[in-house]
Write a structure and sequence with these properties.
single chain, alpha/beta, Rossmann fold, 2 domains, 6-stranded parallel β-sheet, two-stranded antiparallel sheet, 11 helices
């Protein structure tokens, strides 16, 4: 008789998640399949400000944290519109149509399976808290998480402070905690927090870029 395989055990995330008691997930590009939509949104903004648009590959190479560094690379003229106003413009456009995106089904399977096999599961995102909560509510997956930590602004400088707060509230040992993300910033945050990191290659940084960090990278 065929017995269905446990999605967690079948997933390439297994090696990093097995035995972990607190799994911290990035949101954009890790859980939410939004890279193509992000390219569409930034290209809308670039065209609006008379800047050259990006291909999918160019975006994954240029995208970075802090977001100010990314916008510097894109060549925006801050004398015409401030960086802060550009961030608000981008987020408002993004939030007006994010519903076309969907969470990665393979990641959802792991989220549901790991929910019953670890003490805590959380989100740590560079999205502002209000937008993050709105998206999680829209996709009806809030029951999968014990904590949801975004930022208190739209400028996406770093999520390290939010990460420190999350770790303190979890009261789970650092060696039992892992961060799952899709960018080199996630590597920086995990290192500063003193926890393990696992990167997925379907997000906002390309696999080639991620491999340069010399940490585990998986395809899901």
């Amino acid at each position: 008789m065929h017995r269905p395989q446990n999605p967690l055990l079948a997933s390439p995330l297994k090696a990093a998640l097995a035995g972990k008691q607190h799994i911290i997930w990035d949101w954009n590009g890790t859980i939410l399949d939004d890279v193509s939509y992000a390219v569409e949104t930034i290209n809308w903004q670039l065209a609006r400000h008379g800047r050259p648009t990006l291909s999918y590959a160019q975006y994954r190479d240029i995208f970075d944290f802090p977001i100010r560094r990314y916008y510097d690379r894109l060549g925006f003229d801050y004398t015409r519109m401030s960086f802060e106003d550009l961030c608000h413009e981008y987020i408002e456009q993004y939030m007006s149509g994010y519903q076309v995106c969907r969470p990665f089904e393979a990641v959802l399977q792991v989220l549901r399976a790991s929910r019953t096999q670890c003490e805590q599961q959380s989100i740590l995102s560079a999205s502002d808290q209000s937008s993050l909560e709105q998206m999680i509510k829209h996709f009806a997956i809030g029951d999968l998480f014990d904590q949801v930590h975004g930022l208190d602004n739209r400028f996406a400088a770093s999520k390290l402070v939010s990460g420190q707060r999350l770790i303190e509230r979890s009261q789970v040992r650092l060696e039992d905690t892992v961060l799952v993300g899709d960018t080199l910033h996630d590597v920086e945050v995990a290192s500063a927090l003193g926890i393990d990191i696992l990167l997925v290659d379907h997000g906002h940084h390309s696999r080639a870029k991620l491999l340069g960090a010399e940490v585990p990278v998986v395809s899901v």
